[in-house]
Amino acid sequence: MELRNYIEKGIETEGTLTSLAVKLGQTREAMTAAKGQRRGLPILACVKLAKLIQAEPLMVIAASEIVTEKKEERLAEWKPYLSNNWRRGWDSNPR
């Protein structure tokens, strides 16, 4: 899922982009840029957004990092975290 999708879910929860920005400790302009895929969000804002929309924080952070990352090798490191497949084998609870 892309960062804009997570932000749109946050807007649905909070009502407006401005109220979401206040909740995440960001400016409205920063949120607009993040929603337009021109800029990522700080890690703490990603964690707050994930809690708000009940998503996995690492997936929101990865979506934010992919927005601004230019190097292919770093993109390749982040892309597996865009889905839940990375969770398999990380804990003792088999699914």
How would you portray this structure in words?
This protein is mainly alpha-helical and 95 residues long. The protein is built from six helices and no strands. It has helices at 3-14, 17-24, 28-35, 43-53, 57-68, 72-78. The longest helix has 12 residues, at 3-14. The radius of gyration is 14 Å and the shape is globular. The protein starts with a helix and ends in a 17-residue tail after the last helix. 23% of the residues are buried. The mean pLDDT is 89.
**Biggest sheet statistics:** none
pLDDT average, as an integer?
89
Count of DSSP E strands?
Answer: 0
Cα radius of gyration in angstroms: 14 Å
Q: Bin the helical content.
A: 55-70%
Number of helices: 6
Which structural class fits the helix and strand makeup?
A: mainly alpha
Beta-strand portion reads under 5%
Uncertain stretches of 5 or more adjacent residues: none
Order of helices and strands: HHHHHH
Distance between the termini: 22 Å
Shape assignment: globular
Query: Quaternary state, please?
Result: single chain
